[in-house]
Amino acid sequence: MIENQIINKAIDFIFSHIDEQLSVDSIAGFCGYSKFYLSRLFKAETGESIYGFIKRTKIEQSAWRLKVEQGRSITEISGEYGYSASNYATLFRDYFEKTPAEFRRKIVEESVAHPFYHGVENKLESFEECCEKISVEYLPDYFVLYERRKGNYHNLEDDWCEFMEHYKDFVTPKTIFIERTINDPAITNPDECLYEVCMTVDKNDKRLEVQKTAAAGITSKAGTLTVPNTMILEGGKFAVYHYKGYPQMIYGAIQSFFCSWLTQTGNKVDNRSGFDIYRKMDDETLYMELDICIPIV
Hints:
The protein is α+β, with helices and mostly antiparallel strands. The chain contains eleven helices and eight strands. Strands 1-6-8-7-3-4-2-5 form an eight-stranded antiparallel sheet. The two termini are 32 Å apart.
């Protein structure tokens, strides 16, 4: 778990400025620490250098855009992340061992062939099947308490159990549970995916204010909770896939959303975060109803 509030603040800044020319100096300045201190802390907390994290995030996010925005040119997409055409081709080939064009031609097939996929072999849902489950909606902002983790999505069940135990006192009948999976495991090494388990909380809750004033990583005065991280998940226009089923089939549904629906509608995604909202969960059968929300322009 990435607990340190300084590092989470740095990661949030990187995500919100990923289409700009980021530097360690600018990130350190935003966080209020020297670049040397922040660099050491970032490496210790994430296992990556700040520069390495930025480079990986940019190239992987641009690759995801190549996957879901098939109607846009490689030059246009790479340019949004600050790459020249020739520089992008070289960096992309070094990272993925194929050119952007080769990646785009093969990514749907490789997504279906991924070990996470448990559906009918080599078959995604059709565009028509997706349309029956997807609606375009305007969602509100969500103020959430969260834990950020780096690892394999297969660990999500255990992560949720731990999260719920940590913050059970914040749960009310109005609480909404949200999951933000940053990376597509068909693109990112599955063991290096970044994700957050979240729950909505009242931003005026005095318990949060008391804990926010504590030093990062220090337990609360009660000694039962570490200092929680909070953030706003930005709302707006989203395409929402209304999933009903079991956990092992979610990956296939998401890839159908990406490869069958997004690619054919021509919708452009933006830099807001996508997230999943839990609507129903049966602890015994594991049947769930989940809204998979992807921001679109």
